[in-house]
Write a structure and sequence with these properties.
The structure holds 2 protein chains of 2 kinds. By secondary structure, chain A is α/β, with parallel strands linked by helices. Helices cover 39% and strands 14% of the residues of chain A. The chains are: A alpha/beta, B alpha/beta. At the A-B interface, helix 3 and helix 4 of A face helix 5 of B.
Amino acid sequence: MKPVPHFLDIAPLRLELLERLIERGFFFKRIAREAPERLKSPLCMEKRLVLLFFEPSTRTRTSFSLAAKQLGFDLQPLEPGSMSLVKGEKLVENFLNLGKLGFDVAVVRHPSSGALHFLSRHIGVSLVNAGDGCHAHPSQALLDLMTIKERFGELKGLRVGIVGDVAKSRVARSDIHALKKFGATVSLIGPPHFVPDTLEGPGVKVSHDLDGLLKGLDVLVMLRIQTERAAYDPLLSLSWYREAYAITLDRFSSLPGHAIVLHPGPVSLGIEMDEEVLKLDRCLSYTQVENGVFARMAVLEWAMEGRGRCC
Amino acid sequence: MGYGRKRTVLLIRNGYLIDPEGGHTGPGQLLMAKDRVVAVLGPNEPVNAGMLERTLDAKGCLVTPAFLDLHAHLREPGFEHKEDIASGLKSAVAGGFGYVCAMPNTSPVNDNPIVTHYLLQKAKALGLSELLPVGAATLSQKGERLTDFHALLKAGCVGFSDDGRSIDDPLVFQDALIYTGQLDTVLFEHAESKRLGGYRGIHAGIVAASLGLEGSSALSETAVVARDVEILRHAKGRLHLTHISAKGSLSYVRTAKEEGLGLSVDVTPHHLLLTEEALAGFNTTPKVNPPLRMEEDRLALLHALKEGLIDAIATDHAPHTQREKDTYFEDAPPGVIGFESAFPALYGLVEKGELGLEKLVSLLSIGPAGVFGIKGIGLKQGSLPNLGVWRVLKEPSPLPPARYSKGKNCPFVGVETKIKLQAFIADGRVVYEHERGFGA
């Protein structure tokens, strides 16, 4: 089996590669404005890409589809349907079949942490992780980096707070790895069952007090409460959660004047974020969506670099 | 000569004897009959070798009693693709184990005498290690209704367990303990609470947090241990806590032992030698229940072992095929194999001066035997004629994959060791030799 590039996780990537991907994302963003007909990449034209989502998704799936189409991929969305919930061995078999069908890249989302790492040991199709369990969502981290860099020019030294169900958030995990690589510091904020002490490490602090930290943050990343990932919901009091951790106009005004608010979406309005905040200029959740397509174009193009058709 | 020469069959010469009871540790010779150790002789004492079937030269070797494993899964009946009694007991012998407790979570479950008879009959025909069946504590191990302890004991069971899970219902647990007191047997408990997040195969620590996996906290074990000890205090009887993994469990064990309750405990080689770090990168091989925990837990277990708080080391040999383990983390079955790697891997602790050799041998032989009150394991005149002969290597060499187990899920493959099993003696006969395998 020929080794092929996989985009599985931020953690093992070198800083230079991340910088390159971000720059490439900005390049695509500029070209899309100036000369959209030049977006198609010769590396990707006529190459076969399959989207396989074993979990529901709206924006990530759409974002990858648009990215693939603009690069000129031959795009096949596949409904996992009968493929869902298959065991490891069966999963590999299905992917081996994809290889035989001549697919070059598979963009995959799976409910189990590490599912793509396992697949990458067995198949010759380039895998792009669109989210695996609570583990990683590297393209989201990349678009978050783009969005922050676009605003601040530099990531080093920024103070980022991530608020919400961090324990179950693949977005948070990938953001943490990415931000640390660029020299930002991260505070993880939420109640103890969302933000356990085990998440603490070099450059990463755990806190249960949002109000105490607001003044010292440059970026606030708000997360949705992921009830679908819990066997049972430990959060009995949403009203309490709101009172302690939601970003309201009031709290927004405690942030420094230059600070921005991000949200990977979908937003649960009235729970972790108020509608008034979502509409503010310094809430960049729509910019994130926009940058998402360009970040993913950079990733897909990278996956095609230096490789021929597999299998 | 005064030791019944007509019945002697085997002489082991030039070995270094390790008697776990401390009596005969040092260079010596062993003269064996089919049913017992006939004599323990000094290295230069004359022996009339004319009547012997065989003389085994154990130069450069340690001679230990055969080990007793309190906790193993032989998978037969029902899961013969993972292991069967023959492959399992060969693997046990190749690891120096002469007595193997077989846990009841087979298909069908060993919850009735028919299954018990089947196991004993199969094992006996092999003439290798002795199989000690552990009966299910509840029917189908559902945790609801107790099995017929009396009938199972008569059939040959040595104890009871719902291993693979705890007995969640406190009333059922209490009643089982009461029976152990009445019938002079022992209840094995896998102390882990599903409700408190147990059975996830990875500790709720930094590795799980970074991999985005939900882990099992120490609480999922300690809460059950606390309950078990409290019920034991009231029900009396005999309880054995198997494969304890968390530092926090030890204080309950200490209290119970100080009070003189009928409690014994074992730990596994993997919990003594490995930590959660072994699971980095979604490694499924060391995925076990209860999970490998933190370094401070490992050190606390090791300390408790030296102190004498822990009675035995048991492998929890749990074979799975390569295909079953080669999947994404949540899909992989929990368990590691342990027979063939246990002593070679644990010997590293002796090499590093962290555990005495006699103590280690004791924890694998008379320690576990004491859990049932089994007598005769040792290197004395009259001891059972089952022994391991271990070659001490001059240079460390990496542990190879298991030779006989069908399971390939050994977390110690590649670990450097300075000891390997040279030969194994069952019923006074050499049944296994490293070079010749079982073919002799």
